[in-house]
Amino acid sequence: MDILLYLPDADLAHWQAACERHLPQARMRLWQEGDDAPADFALVWRPPAALLRDRPGLRAIFNLGAGVDGILALERAHPGTLPAGVPLIRLDDAGMARQMTEYACHAVLHYFRRCDDYDRQQAQGIWQPLPAHRREDFTIGVMGLGQLGAQVAAGLRAFGFPLRGWSRNPRQLEGIACYAGAAQFDAFLQDCKVLVNLLPHTPDTQDILNRQTFAKLAAPAYLVNVARGGHLVEADLLAAIAEGHIAGAALDVFREEPLAPAHPFWREPRIRITPHVSALTLPEESIEQIAGKITALTRGASVSGIVDLQRGY
Ligand code: NDP
Ligand code: OXD
Q: What is the model's pTM?
C-alpha cells in the first residue's frame, strides 16, 4: 500500500514514525514536485493541485485537518483536482476538540474575569478592583455544534454559564439551548454576551461575523473566532470595537495568514491574537484514526468523516 504525504511546515519524521507504528504494511513517501507515481491514499493539508489530479490508484484523500475549505477552494480554482468517486475524508476530532475547549474556555474566562482590563491596568501600574461580570447574565453562543463546537459548548457549560448553540440542522445537547438554521439565527444571537465561532467556512457562512450580527448581541459583547478568517468582516469588528459595541476579541484565524505586520489588528489592544494554533493536528492521534479508516475501507466497510462536497463540510 502506497501513501503520499503532504503537510507543509510539519515535523515529517514524526508523521512517518507514527505511520510506521499504525500502518506497518504501508510505504509512505513525501510528495515532491514531479511525483506522479501511483498512490493508494493521500494524506494532505492544503496540497498543490498536481498532487491529486489524475493520481493513478487513488482510493481516498485524507484531509489532515477538520476544515476542508482550503481543499474545496483548490477544486473550485482548478476543477477536476479532486478525482471523481474518490472520497475526501476529514479528521474527526483526533485530539482537536480538547485543545479547542481549552482555548475557548481560556479566552472566555480571561474576559469574564476581567483579565483584559487588569492587563491594561497593570501596564499603567494601576491597582483598582473592578466589579465582576454576573455569570447568569453572561450568555455564551457557540456557532457550529459539530465535532468541535459541541464539545466546546459542553466545556463552557461546566463553568455554569448559560449556553446556546447554533447549527444547520436541529440538535439536542444537554444543558444547551439549541437553535438551528437561518430562521433562528437572530433568536440565537439575542442577549449573547460572548460569541464563539466554530462553523465551517462555506458560501453560507462567509462573512457571517459582521456588523449586523454584532448589533444583535448584548453590548458590550466579546468575540472568539477559532474557525476561519473568512467568517469575519475585519473592518466591521474594528468599527464595533471603536463604538464600544464589542468589548474585544480573541482571534486565532485570519483572512490572510500569516497576519501581515501592518494589519490594524496588531495595534488594537482589545484584540488578542494567536497564529492559528487553537487546535493543532496531532500526528499520533491523526494517523491512528486514519489507519483505522484505511483498514475499514480496505475491508469494504463505511467510515465517518466523508465530506459532502455540495454542502461544503
Ligand atoms: P463539523 O463539520 O463537525 O461541524 C460543523 C458545525 O457547523 C455543524 O454543527 C453544522 O451544522 C454547523 N453548520 C455548518 N454550516 C452551517 C450553517 N450554514 N448554519 C448553521 N450551522 C452550520 O466541524 P468541526 O466542529 O470539526 O470544525 C469546525 C471548524 O473549525 C472547521 O471547519 C475549521 O474551519 C475550524 N477549525 C479550526 C482550527 C484551528 O486551529 N483554528 C482547528 C480545527 C478546526 P449541522 O450539525 O447541522 O451539520
Ligand atoms: C483544521 C485547522 O481545520 O487546523 O483542522 O484549521
A: 0.97
- Quote the distance between the C-alpha of residue 185 and its chain's center: 20
Rounded Cα distance between 31 and 224, Å, is 35
Q: What is the 3-class SS of 143-168, one letter each residue? A: ECCCCCHHHHHHHHHCCCCCEEEEEC
Nearest ligand atom owner, CA of 145: 1
Helices (H), 113-248: 115-123, 149-157, 185-189, 211-215, 234-243
Cβ atoms of 58 and 40 closer than 8 Å = yes
Report cis status (omega within 30 of 0) of the bond before 162: no
pLDDT in single tens digits along all 313 residues of the chain: 999 999 998 888 899 999 999 999 999 999 999 999 999 999 999 999 999 999 999 999 999 999 999 999 999 999 999 999 999 999 999 999 999 999 999 999 999 999 999 999 999 999 999 999 999 999 999 999 999 999 999 999 999 999 999 999 999 999 999 999 999 999 999 999 999 999 999 999 999 999 999 999 999 999 999 999 999 999 999 999 999 999 999 999 999 999 999 999 999 999 999 999 999 999 999 999 999 999 999 999 999 999 999 999 9
- Residue whose CB lies within 8 A of the most ligand 1 atoms, among 72, 164, 199, 232, for a mutation test: 199
- Is the minimum distance from the CB of 66 to ligand 2 under 6 angstroms? yes
Distance from Cα 311 to the centre of ligand 1, integer Å: 12
DSSP 279: S
How far is the CA of 307 from the CAs of 63, 121, 205, 312, in angstroms? 10, 47, 17, 7
Helices and strands (DSSP H and E) totals, the chain: 10, 12
What is the DSSP secondary-structure string of 49-96? Answer: HHHHTT-TT--EEEESSS--HHHHHHHHHSTT-S-TTPPEE----TTH
Could you tell me if the CB of 198 is within 6 A of ligand 2? no
